[in-house]
Amino acid sequence: MTSAGDEIPMTAVKTLPEADPKPEADSKLTKYKSSKTSPDLGDNGRRRSESDAPGGQLEGVMTAARSLRKYKTYCQTQGADRERHSSVRVSPEALAKLHKLHEVYMKIKDPERFKQLEDITTARIMEAFSKGESWQVHPLLPEKEKERPLHKRPMDFWGAKQKGWIPGAEAEAALRHWGAAMTNTKGLKGVRDTSIGQDNCSIATLRDGWEVFCVMDGHGVDGHWASTRASQTLPFFLQESGCAQMLQAGGFEAALTTAFEKVEDDLEIKAHEEDIRLHFSGTTATVAVRDKVRDDLWVAHVGDSRAVLLVPGEGVVYSTTDHKPTLEDEARRVEESGCVIEHTEYEDGEIEDRIYIKGEDFPGLNMTRSFGDIVVKDHGVIATPEVRRWCMSKYKTAYYLACSDGVWEFMSNEEVSDLVLGRLEEGKSCVEVAEELLKRSQMSWKVRDPEYMDDITILLVPLDDSTRPAGGFVTSLLVCGDCLDGIRKGNCRIM
Fold it and tell me: Which of 116-120, 205-209, 265-269 has the highest mean pLDDT?
């Protein structure tokens, strides 16, 4: 970290082109078209690398700082002024300071805290989900550093490979046979946008039978990295010996809190190894663990990826609360930890609240808890989850729905509940319902701006055991014997 005596290298700042219109002197807000992900795109729409971006790495830091702006917001009136894209002014001095913070962080070869932490490789995570009934399904990121708008990602399957399975079709077959729906779709950040979508998710069954559902929504220039890593490691840590023993003993809150701590540590280790800009990148996380013995759902979350429990005939019976600066307890914590909350009210009556380190022009976050965002981890923006128990014993049928804010931005809990439960009552499957919710959410964005749409992730899971295959997950996938033979005969129960 920089001290009062550190010299900020301002020569690089002076060579930077003027990036944004200068704001009015009495406001930190300036109107310019930005996106939730990095707006620093080259002429062909790809994200600029440090070598080809004007100003080099420092401009990359500028991009990262700006891309922390969580939302585009809109006026309710139509016409030329219907859009309102807000960004926070970040001074050259602040950008240089962020740049130096990142440089100092990367130069530390062996931080004392890292000595106590274990380096978890992807190969080890995959191996952990390759034994017995344990498995994980999650979206596949594009192999190249680009992704077309509205791309619906295919799913990957980590689990024991069994004779008779069709290579490459395990994930989709697993979700379909299990009755669950998972969709992870990139949004639209401009006409030529090829940036990586920042949402991610996973569904997993642990060795002892616990079911885990994760939704993550990244932000910042490396937000896609943070959300992907967290969605894959959180089920892994819950399955490891310490958390697994807590789950067996009924200590769900302790297990989830510990797993969140391990994920935050893991992100910081990997960010250091891979030169990820985690100082100004992060992700939300909403995770549910099903206690099949007591018929409860334990939900832990940081940020604003909302989850609800839907019951036919009753609607929303449980919901998470978005971690925003508007919540009194959340605001008190960040303010007592050295942050200030700036409130801006617009002509249409909408109020925007953003968090700054006191005396600084960054980061401008509008959430009070997250993974990553190291620059404010000592200033009250914590990775400690809020954990709640959702009792399901009195509900014969219930559905767990978790979505990134691409759904919730323009749809209320009640609107989503009416759509989902209404279509389920009509006999549609969870997959069909999730697809309709995706299209409805995309249309809500499109009518407000044809050139911008948030990433959208949806998990819809039936919690009624009558919808689950008997005899365990792996056994149920093998009931057809030779899958190819089953498809040829037209009696495959999966496809």
Answer: 265-269
SS3 of the chain: CCCCCCCCCCHHHHCCCCCCCCCCCCCCEEECCCCCCCCCECCCCCECCCCCCCCCHHHHHHHHHHCCCCCCEECCCCCCCCEECEEECCCHHHHHHHHHHHHHHHHCCCCHHHHCCCCCCHHHHHHHCCCCCCEEEEECCCCCCCCCCCCECCEEEEECCCCCCCCCCHHHHHHHHHCCEEEEECCECCCCCCCCCCEEEEEEECCCCCEEEEEEEEEECCHHHHHHHHHHHHHHHHHCHHHHHHHHCCCHHHHHHHHHHHHHHHHHHHHHHHCCCHHHEEECEEEEEEECCCCEEEEEEECCCCEEEEECCCEEEEECCCCCCCCHHHHHHHHHCCEEEEEEECCCCCEEEEEEECCCCCEEECCCECEECHHHCCCCCECCCEEEEEECCCCCCCEEEEECHHHHCCCCHHHHHHHHHHHHHCCCCHHHHHHHHHHHHHHHHHCCCCCCECCEEEEEEECCHHHCCCCCHHHHHCCCCCHHHHHHHCCCCCC
pLDDT, tens digit (0-9, with 9 covering 90-100), for 149-174: 999 999 999 987 665 667 778 888 77
Distance of CA 98 to the CA centre of its chain: 23
Q: Is the pLDDT of residue 63 over 60?
A: no
**Of 338, 396, 397, 344, which Cα lies nearest the Cα of 366?**
344
Residue 426's contacts (CB-CB under 8 Å, 6 or more residues apart) are: none
The verdict on whether omega for the bond into residue 39 sits within 30 degrees of 0, i.e. cis, is no
Burial 316-333 (b: 16+ CB within 10 A, else e): bbbbbebbbbeeeebbeb
Task: Pick left, alpha or beta for residue 472 (phi over 0 → left; psi -120 to 50 → alpha; otherwise beta).
Answer: left
| Residue 231 predicted with pLDDT over 80 | yes
pLDDT the model gives residue 410: 93
